[in-house]
Amino acid sequence: MLEFKGISKWYNVGGNKTYILNNVDLIIREGEFVSIMGPSGSGKSTLLHIMGMLDEPSEGYHYFMGQAVHLLKEKQRSQLYKQHIGFVFQAYHLIDELTVYENIETPLIYQNVKTSERKAMVADILDRFQMVGKKDLFPTQLSGGQQQLVGIARALIASPRLLLADEPTGNLNSKQGEEIMEIFKKLNNEGVTIIQVTHSEKNAGYGSRVINLLDGRIS
Amino acid sequence: MYKNYFKIALRNLARNKFFSTINIIGLSIGIAGCLLIGLFVWDELQYDRFHKDADRIFRIYDKSTNSQGVSNVAPTSPMFETTLNNEFPEAEQSLRILNIYGENFFRSGDKKGYEERGIIAEENFFDFFTLPLIEGNPKQALSSPYGVVITQEVKKKYLGDGEALGKTIFVGSDNMKVTGVLAKLPEHFHMEFSYIIPMLNVKKELNEKQMQSWNWQQFFTYVKLKPNTNKDAFEKKFQKLITARANPVTKEGGFTYIPFLQRVTDIHLHSSDFKFDIIKAGNITYVKALSIIAIFVLLIACFNFINLSTARSLRRAKEVGVRKVVGAEQRQIWAQFTGESIFISLLATVLASIIAYYFLPSLNHFTEKHIVFNPLTSVALFVFLVGLGIVVGIFAGIYPAIFISRFNPIYILKGMKSRAGKGGNNQILRKALVVIQFALSVFLISCAAIVFKQVDYMHHKDLGFNKEQLMFFPMRGENMKNNYETFKNEIISSSGVVSATIAYGYPGDIVSGDDIIVPGNGKGTTYPARQFMIDYDYLKTMGLHIIAGRDFSKSFATDSTSAFIINETAVKELGLGTPETAIGKRLDWHPWNTDKEDSLKKGFVIGVVKDFNFSSLHEKVNTAVLQIFPSAYWKVAVKVQTANLKSTISQVEKVWNKYSPEYPISYKFLDQSFDEMYRAEEKLSALLWIFTGLAIFIGCLGLLGLATFAAEQRIKEIGIRKVLGASATNITGMLSGDFMKLVLLAAIISLPIAWITLSKWLEEFPYRISMNAWLFILSAAVALVVALFTVSFQAIRAASSNPVKALRTE
Lengths: 219, 810
Known about the structure:
The structure holds two protein chains of two kinds.
Chain A: E1 2-13, E2 16-28, E3 33-37, H1 44-51, E4 59-64, E5 67-68, H2 74-84, E6 85-89, H3 100-109, H4 115-128, H5 144-156, E7 162-166, H6 174-189, E8 193-197, H7 201-204, E9 209-214, E10 217-218
Chain B: H1 2-15, H2 17-44, E1 57-66, E2 69-73, H3 79-87, E3 91-100, E4 104-108, E5 111-115, E6 118-121, H4 125-128, E7 133-135, E8 147-151, H5 152-159, E9 168-171, E10 174-182, E11 195-198, H6 199-203, H7 208-211, E12 220-225, H8 231-251, E13 255-263, H9 284-312, H10 317-325, H11 330-367, H12 379-405, H13 409-413, H14 425-460, E14 470-474, H15 478-482, H16 484-492, E15 497-503, E16 512-518, E17 525-534, H17 538-542, E18 546-549, H18 559-562, E19 563-567, H19 568-573, H20 579-582, E20 586-589, E21 601-609, E22 624-628, E23 635-640, H21 645-659, E24 668-669, H22 670-676, H23 679-713, H24 715-723, H25 728-763, H26 773-799, H27 803-808
Parallel strand pairs in B: 6-11, 8-10, 17-22, 19-21
Antiparallel strand pairs in B: 1-2, 1-12, 1-13, 3-6, 3-12, 4-5, 4-9, 7-10, 8-11, 9-10, 14-23, 14-24, 15-23, 16-17, 18-21, 19-22, 20-21
């Protein structure tokens, strides 16, 4: 499903290249649940961002679902990830001015889904996450765990094939964290490929494979 | 999708009440100001568009050159029309109009009064001007010598409500039959009058020879060209023929002229500098100036919007980041934010329309217009307003939207908001916009100050005579005219009267122009001059200053037959050396009202008066000749004491009624008619103050917003500085200083431009204030102080906050 070949990312600092990622090769197959681990500054988030096409590598080949992402134009790339990739963040990143319902609905708007269809899809997912009663609340009126649930619901609304999660439980207490991981596991069983960045061995335990990063290299 | 955008726009507005208010109010006031000026300008442009064939009706005026320079003169020689009729087949019709100067007496039964404005027009008047007649036939209304066309108001005043057609009304000295009743004259007609007398009525008084004169310029000439006639070619042909015939003749009188065509639709706005004109004149310069000011005000408001939106955009950064991550393209973000500013702008337009609606009556009152503004009943206006809202929204919103849509989501979502925007460009832009805003404000302040000073100067300049406490009125009735001497003496002896004079030719009133001859070889040299036919009390009553020689005196018998007093300009123009050497010099003049054609009054200069401004300060003082000439005596000027004005007036009235009980007295005060001459400038001055105030207010709103934002942004820095020992004063200085530098820069940029513009404007006035650097520095200082006040308010608040609190929140 996803393949990196010689992916590097660097910044020029005072004339010298500072590598964030250095010549990373990796392959992730459909249906995997991968955890990326490593100390702070090892390049985990950057790797995840490149996977999600939010960031571009300085060098290397990037294939996603059979397409050479490094050759695609901005617009095609955005089309590709809009359809197939969902994001979950440590800080949830919900839009404060929108209600739970509207937050979940937003990705569909950018995929030109019709209003009636949108209604059905959002109702469906609210039901699945047992949040129907909270649909008109604003994010600030929810607990962290509930916010992250909304974040996940939003990431899943367009039925992506790949779910990218950047320390999804980092801001949650352990009980909330466990719930989220259970949901991830269930999703993975339903066929969604999941890649998560995590510090926690316990969370990594939910996955099928661990990739360890150190100083921008896979170790 | 739009519902989603709309909701978020509303929620953001509601969440940031302070900035929303500043943004919307600033924009509303800007648009409202612009709308009001726009309505005024639009209205000014509507003049004379309603005439059938307005596109081929022209007025003919002259560019006249004499020893004092070139000027535009509205009335022309009677020969213009004659020539048009006889030799220009391109002219479908031509029309001559004479103005009736002064009030005319009207009477019907026991109703009597004076009508101030009247014209004398040829039969085809109504073929030129589409003025609806309530009664009468436009084709015949002016075709009998003793017919008169009156307006509805005049009809009501003298003839009551019933039908007026065919009824008799006494006008001036004749019984006239009403041949037409005009509906109220359209507001956008360039002339204003209450009655029209047919040219046939005065034909008997205009002798053949006079009607063939090229020198006598009294007729307002209009021409209607045949369809598809080229105006420029026609004008050239006409100029060629007229100059060839007229100039050899007029040269002897010391002047030449070239005729020009003026579109009927241009008359109102493009005749403000015309001499001897009778129209309702607007002023294209002021219309343009106001349009520019309107654009300035709108620009300042838009810049506010741009500044505040970009400054505040970081608040929306997270939303943008999230939207991008969930699939929004840059274009979509851009569309969302542009849409949002269009929405705000439309909201502001609605508010602006309400403001404009409520302020329009004041504008109408002030400009004496009757503009109607109701977007709910006019589809065109409604569409225009929506369009305006959209255009302003796009103009003000496009940059912030582009700026925001370029945010890099990764930085935002990592919480590195400050790196999200691309570079510091928007800082520079924000500063540049503040500089432009205040440059415009300083420019407007200096304009307002200079215009105010000039108007003030015109009101208070020493005119060379004393216009205060002068009551003045024309004599009426044979008895009064025949016994003017005793009439005058009785007035002088009334209590409260200082002195009185009877004359023809008062400052601010009609002054006749006639040549004066300096005898020399052969015929001598003829000079154009203004003639004052005065009595022995004129100089004293008007407060003119003798600078050489003496005043007229009854003790010199020759003063009534062969003496002239001239002004300083005359001494120069006639080449008489100095005021002292001018005394005793010979002057000749062709007297009026004699049957002998070449009779000549031979006289000597007995006195020279200091120049006095007998016309408005828009015009330079001309050669003036004063002489005793009782047969032209017309108006009485009475110098009265300030105290007990009412009883003095009733005393004068009593004397009047003794001599002419059949006529009511109708008087004016001279200073009033003088003040009226500067109405245009006064209004410009007032409008300038209002819109300058608006511009500064809007600019300061923006500054307040930016200062608040800056204080918010730097709250941590301020906290650290305070912990390190900075005082509140230090911090206030630091925060205010940044903005003050910008305002100072703005002043430096705009003052030279203001200086040049205003010098040019002042050049239009022969009598003007000198440009005063202090006034400009003061203007800049005002802007600085107002800005400082606005900014320091926020700065002090930020500086006096508790540093611990600021640091803890980080």
